[in-house]
Amino acid sequence: MIYFDNAATTRALPEVAEKMTYMLCENFGNPASVSVMGLEVEKEIRKAAEILANGIRAKEEEIFFTSGGTEGDNWAIYGTAEGYARNGKHLITTAIEHPAVKNPMKHLEEKGYEVTWLGVDEKGHISLEELANAIRPDTILVSTILVNNETGVIQDAAAIGKLIKEKNPNTLYHVDAVQAFGKYPIDVQKMKIDLLTMSGHKIHGPKGVGMLYMRKGLKVRPFILGGGQQKGQRAGTENGAGVAGLGVAADVAFRSMKESIEHVKEVKKTLMDGILAMSDTQVNGDGLEEASPYVLNVTFKGLRSEVLLHSLESKGIFVSAGSACDSRKKIGSPVLTAMGMPYEEIEGAVRFSFCRYNTVEEAKECLKALEETVPFLRKINRQR
């Protein structure tokens, strides 16, 4: 099996599974309990929080554990909207956000908030000038994705954060770092980030656990109310096993980040160069050096991505469609649409996403399968 769908989810590390088994079967106390068992679990949770905080230059007390990226994004947005309603009801985001950001923003619009949706250029970058013009005295939040989940395009978080604080120091900056955390250097101090979300299963950790970094002193409202766990900010008994597993995965990711980036870049380059050598193909978004090495979005013109996806799957190669298209309505990926791509190019978009355990040999094997499959599918398509 060749698994090139790591932006969707990753295989958990053996040491993560081992840690979680230990926590579930032996160190299984309730961290809210004052018993020895409870205190041992609390110690594991604080250790994980310290690992996560150190990796982004935050403080351990600024780390809050969630059920994943979606909860974290929702908490950052709704919590800011409620906590800062007196400051204003204007928010800013982009046309290329994940639904976990986009849909809460749309919901707030229905409740009377005003949302400015920033466009992007043909590569998928927002305009800093457009952002500057959009920030107002009543702007309470700007939310941008760091590494786009479909294209791998990287927004300049440091420039965005600096601009926000220059235009309105009271405006909070939220970053969706689900595809960036542990794979791209993040410094919440230099980037002037107030809120940041991540998800464990994108970095070889467990599903169902994630993190919200929330800068100390913010008035963001709790999203889940109850027994007052996590300093009263996120109620519910902490997922000790998941959090401990997340800590292990994050520790490995941070320690191997530099080497992983270089290795994955070679895997991506091998596959990308080979695909571009084929006829009627194009990379969507930035090139190798500018985009994340972990994501490659390619259009195979004259094909439907779902057909190619299933053909590769039959050969034991797993990728994903670059968009969820409705061929009858001619509706494609909102991300690629926002980049100005015509439907015919969006229809044939495929996303390959990598991890540090993929190999150049796998890329070559995938390329061989594409060289056999793509011309055959195009021939069939022309005959219809």
UniProtKB/TrEMBL annotation:
InterPro entries referenced in this protein's UniProt entry, alphabetically: Aminotrans_V_dom (IPR000192), Aminotrans_V_PyrdxlP_BS (IPR020578), Cysteine_dSase (IPR016454), PyrdxlP-dep_Trfase (IPR015424), PyrdxlP-dep_Trfase_major (IPR015421), PyrdxlP-dep_Trfase_small (IPR015422)
Superkingdom: Bacteria
GO molecular-function term, one example from the UniProt record: cysteine desulfurase activity
Cofactor(s) the protein needs: pyridoxal 5'-phosphate
Name of a matching Pfam family: Aminotran_5
Keyword match Ion transport: no
Domain Aminotransferase class V per the UniProt entry, residue ranges: 2-363
PROSITE patterns, sorted: AA_TRANSFER_CLASS_5 (PS00595)
Keyword terms, alphabetized: Iron, Iron-sulfur, Metal-binding, Pyridoxal phosphate
Alphabetical list of PANTHER family matching this protein: CYSTEINE DESULFURASE ISCS 2-RELATED, CYSTEINE DESULFURYLASE FAMILY MEMBER
Stated family: Belongs to the class-V pyridoxal-phosphate-dependent aminotransferase family. NifS/IscS subfamily.
UniProt protein name: Cysteine desulfurase
Organism: Anaerotignum lactatifermentans DSM 14214
